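ping. complex inputs:
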Amino acid sequence: MKYLGLIWSNLKRHKLRTALTISSIFVAFLLFGFLFAFKEAFNSGVRMADADRLIVRHRVSLIQTLPVSYGPRIISIPGVASVTHMTWFGGIYQDPKNMFASFPVEQGSFFDLYPELTLPAAERAHWSKTRSGAIIGRSLAEKFSWKTGDIIPLTSPIYGEPSNQAAWDLEICGIFDTTKKGGDTSALYFRYDYFDEARPRGKGEVGWFTVRVANASEADAVAAKIDETFANSPYETKAEPEGAFAAGFAQQIGDIGKILIAVLSAVFFTILLVAGNTMNQSVSERTGEIGVLKAMGFTGPLVLVLVLVESCLIALTGGLGGLGSAWGMLTLKNPIASVLPVFYVPESALLLGSVLALALGLISGALPAWHALRIRTADALRRNG
Amino acid sequence: MSTTGPDLVRINHVTKTFHRGAEDIHVLSSLDLTVAKGEFLALMGPSGSGKSTLLNLIGGLDRPTEGSVEIGGERIDRLSERDLAAWRARHIGFVFQFYNLMPVLNAERNVELPLLLTNLSKRQRREHAENALKVVGLSHRLKHYPRTLSGGEQQRVGIARAIATDPTLLLCDEPTGDLDRKSGDEILTLLQTLNREQGKTIIMVTHDPHASARATRTVHLDKGQLAANAPTD
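pong. complex structure:
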């Protein structure tokens, strides 16, 4: 502790240089935080997936629909515990930029498959009695300041308007939360029976089925049986664990993990050069002072530690500042909630970032610190003269 | 009045050779020298005669190629780097030609630097630093940074830093070499006072006969060997 004053004074020696170095590290770690938030957003489906849930979709692609009549046939397959179905509605509220996740669902079986979604019993009962009723997630309600009892008009570029109506007027019957940390509460669910009756086309079809298997260890076998059941039909299926389905969905835009590593590697290599150059320059120009310290009795290892602490302080100030800012900004407000409803810097990224900042400090300070340790006192003093 | 005591420094048959590529440069050749406790010794000689090298050996900044360096009865040429650093912190105060103050620290903090290696509390360190600056007549300049001080004042801070830990031996390498005559005289008077009134043993490297005249004894080095050894007062 008693050496902190000396270290602090050295950091203030070239205020602009130190500030610029810290700023560059700050920006790198801000980027690190945002990139990990993206990764988290794309992987949230995988993370939230239950091991005993399967998704059954059209074999060709997700946008091809399946007959609703597959439901009773799927539940009769041995090993299947329960089934529900969902359809992508693509609901828009007032303006195309206000598109959010919205699905007509089978209200009776929906909560059996998604028990992590919690809705007060009274609201659930109200939804079951309201044909044009919908339930919305907490974050969606907050975004548009919607409350129970509101009637919200939605349009859909996929299904158009309901017969004899200008929009899908849905009554909000309840607001649900989730028991899963980081779970998505930005969606709207409304009743399939109302949707199917009112839609002008595609009646009797659904987007996909969600299946709960009786035994998670048999999920793959049950998936194979489902596909076998509908083989050689006009609507062949592809059944897969929910996690694999979510991963495949995320991979449609590329391997987020690899993109992340490539970008961050380039950024950190550059920052390492910047920080390393700063420390090297900083120590090199005070070689004489290092000689004086050693002449006074400062040992080589002590001088080495002083240099490393200095470089770690620079890296940690910039690194933790950048990480903290990314975390703070995304915690306060999700700037792209309509595109990525789950968008936050996970704790694991904060921890990893902190370790990386420390490593950056140690690596960038290693060479000048080693130089300070090794240089002979008499030689260092001669540089000053 | 200064009095000299038993030998504090014993240099026995010291040889120092530097290797520059394939060439061996013999800087000191079988040199013997003793300095008594309480003595103010001036080391004189032309450039390249080995004065600074000898000072470095006495201060434990370098090791002899052959021979022994004994300070206060301790063979410092046998100490490990770590022990040598601790020994320097306890026994040696360096005064440099170009002051070598830390530009980012004020006078008080510069003087406090060697005290960081002691077990003194922050308050005690500050008290010691203030006292040392008082001794050199700079108690009114505690918070001044080196760039705001004159050359003579900077050298006074350098001397305060050197005496802050109350070392056994003060080693001064051309302490007046970068100063005008008046400031140089003030520094020499200060060193003389430290020697006479506080009994500090001082070894001073200088080119300047005017400076060496203030010492109690002058030793001349030439080509790495002792040329003359005569008391000056």
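Residues 37-62+78-231 of chain B form a domain with the Rossmann fold fold (CATH 3.40.50.300).
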